[in-house]
Amino acid sequence: MENFKLTEQDRATLQYKVTNKLRELILKGEFRMGERLMQEEWAQKLGVSRMPLREALRQLEVEGLVKIEPRRGAVVTPISTEDIEEIYQLRALLEGQAVVKSLPYLGDEEIRELENLYNAMIKLKADENDVEVFMKLNAEFHRILRESCPWRRIQGFIETLWKGIPPYTPSLLSNHLADSHEEHRLMLEYVKQKDEVRLRRITEKHILRTKENLVEMMNKK
């Protein structure tokens, strides 16, 4: 396995960077199902202390990529491309419906919030620090789009699907931020126009494109 050691300059946001690196390696199939991630070994490989590594493993457990077991430590439980297909297909279906049901309730205040988030996102660069900010802005943008949907069950299903990989996808696909910017611009435009057909269509396209890019990344060895 290659040398993954982080440079001194990289260590400004250690936990974030360690989490990203391990997440990427797990999704690309660098570990076997059930393989242990030894803290001391990986702290040495990445050139960090064990503290950010422990925090990274806790985050990966929340995402379902590792399981922290008594006496064994962190054990890899990788998500497959089939899992990604399922998560993102369901997200496209449910969020496409949710934004349509939410649209009549999105007023001037919500549109201003969406505009502010969009403008903040397009100012960001594709480096690691800005991608971390983008992830938070992106999640908030999608939350506002769907939060006024009166169907509580669909909201619950979507929240479940967002737990794990989806919020962190931008950190894996930072070279596709330009595509996301354009899709967000169109979402905002269709909200302003109250065009539910095109809003549903671009929301579904946005999610399914992300799925395809993520599967492509996972299949590259």
From TrEMBL:
**Sample GO molecular function, one term:** DNA-binding transcription factor activity
HTH gntR-type domain: which residues?
Answer: 12-79
- What is any Pfam family matched here? GntR
Q: Which InterPro entries match?
A: GntR_C, TF_FadR/GntR_C, Tscrpt_reg_HTH_GntR, WH-like_DNA-bd_sf, WH_DNA-bd_sf
Gene3D superfamilies (alphabetical): GntR ligand-binding domain-like, Winged helix-like DNA-binding domain superfamily/Winged helix DNA-binding domain
Keywords (alphabetical) are:
DNA-binding, Transcription, Transcription regulation
The answer, when asked if Cell cycle is one of the entry's keywords, is no
Q: Which PANTHER family match?
A: GLUCONATE OPERON TRANSCRIPTIONAL REPRESSOR, TRANSCRIPTIONAL REGULATOR, GNTR FAMILY
Q: What is this protein called?
A: HTH gntR-type domain-containing protein
Species this protein is from:
Planococcus versutus
